[in-house]
Specification:
about 425 residues, mainly beta, OB fold (Dihydrolipoamide Acetyltransferase, E2P), 3 domains, six-stranded mixed β-sheet, five-stranded mixed beta barrel, globular
């Protein structure tokens, strides 16, 4: 994995992936689907658009939910309409990338960034990853230990790597987790190394044994290249170390990527997960085709490397996404931690924050907003700029665009 990602994921977390027919959030009103990271509340902010949720159905991991079940950092799919920076959501769907056993954690003590092995998936944690925990004593990523159960949402390649936008420690061990989640732990990925004799296959570096599992959604059987979800109530086999599947379910008709009607134009913002080869590459496992009409801005075709942050305008041809325009996006490589001197707010998630050292940073609807205080106060669950005040301690990730500093993540912390 390209470790430059650790310093450069910032805007990816705030912009994530935007799927929108015929022009996106900057054009006229459209009816489409938006796939991206929740950056804030006051309604729901995704990809710079504030979606009204007054009459919205919400699904969380296959079950009916409410807006209170949604959290900053979650990758969600919103169906609805948008015009400019506002929209209306008819439905919001959240499905995690995995919820499973930690095999190992390579994040050094006192650090917040690095990699974890969670059920054979390499999960990269950056300074912009939203981290929460339900386990007492675990407050930072370096405190996670083998055997804990973590839920991860982020940019997944489908082949064994996830660049996390949100991580939540769910339980200290599998037994505790199963007492509240009878359906078991789960992981999604693309099947490889299928062995029909021994009834095993790989998801990333994890070998799955499906001999006793129920199969769902398959027309015939499990095959290499299919995108699936594996559930397990037993965990790892004590002898082989394989994940013992209780259920294997075909996901999205076996294809990694968004579920679309395959018409109209789309706009995608995110990280390259498969570098360009020939005339194609992938963002979050979504394959994009380049043709002679594709134009490039601030990037060349050869620059489409893993972990590069880009924006793609594309359209469907015979079910395939073909790029019309590819543009390099700004990245977050700076951080400041200090005390707020002044807040000038023009909206719930828009304004300017001035630090006591004189640093001025713009905040917009794509900025991840999180209240992480824990000493003697209850953090604001639906934190936005209206709750920020003079004297608050904050940690801000930002990028510098020709002298204008813009926040990709603003986190209020204990003094």
């Amino acid at each position: 994995m390209n470790k430059s990602y650790l310093g450069n994921i910032g805007l990816a977390l705030s912009s994530a992936i935007l799927l929108v027919a015929c022009g996106g959030g900057g054009g006229g009103s459209t009816s489409s689907a938006y796939v991206g990271t929740i950056t804030g509340f006051g309604s729901v902010f995704v990809n710079g658009v504030e979606f009204d949720t007054s009459n919205t159905s919400i699904s969380v991991d296959g079950s009916s939910g409410t807006e209170n079940d949604l959290k900053v950092g979650m990758q969600v799919t919103i169906k609805g309409s948008a015009s400019g920076s506002t929209g209306t959501a008819s439905s919001i769907t959240f499905n995690d990338d995995l919820e499973g056993l930690v095999i190992s954690n390579s994040i050094a003590s006192g650090q917040k960034t690095g990699d974890m092995n969670i059920m054979g998936q390499t999960v990269t944690v950056s300074g912009s990853t939203v981290f929460e925990s339900k386990v007492t004593g675990v407050t930072t990523p370096d405190q996670v230990t083998a055997g804990m159960i973590l839920e991860v949402s982020g940019f997944s390649s489908g082949t064994g790597s996830v660049q996390a936008t949100r991580i939540e420690v769910k339980a200290a061990d599998l037994t505790t987790y199963l007492s509240a989640h009878a359906e078991g732990i789960e992981v999604k990925g693309i099947v490889s190394n299928l062995d029909t004799n021994n009834m095993t296959f790989d998801l990333g570096s994890m070998t799955v044994s499906y001999a006793g599992a129920s199969l769902s959604g398959f027309t015939t059987s499990v095959k290499d290249g299919l995108y699936v979800e594996v559930k397990s109530t037993q965990g790892l086999d004590g002898i082989t170390g394989n994940l013992v599947a209780s259920k294997v379910e075909l996901e999205n008709n076996g294809k990694k990527g968004h579920d679309s009607d395959s018409d109209g134009e789309v706009e995608i913002k995110g990280l390259v997960t498969t570098a360009v080869s020939g005339n194609s590459f992938a963002i979050n496992g979504e394959v994009i085709t380049i043709d002679s009409n594709t134009t490039f801005k601030n990037i060349k075709q050869s620059g489409l490397l893993v972990d590069v942050m880009i924006e793609v305008e594309a359209y469907y041809i015979n079910g395939a996404l073909v790029a019309k325009k590819i543009e390099l996006e700004n990245i977050s490589s700076n951080e400041i931690k200090g005390v707020v001197a002044k807040v000038t707010s023009t909206a719930l998630n828009a304004g300017v924050v001035t630090m006591t050292d004189g640093t001025v940073i713009a905040v917009n609807s794509s900025t991840i907003m999180k209240d992480s205080r824990s000493l003697g106060v209850t953090p604001v669950a639906k934190f936005n700029l209206s709750f920020l005040a003079q004297g608050d301690t904050v940690e801000i990730k930002y990028y510098d665009d020709k002298g204008t500093l813009t926040a990709t993540k603003l986190e209020r912390e204990d003094p």
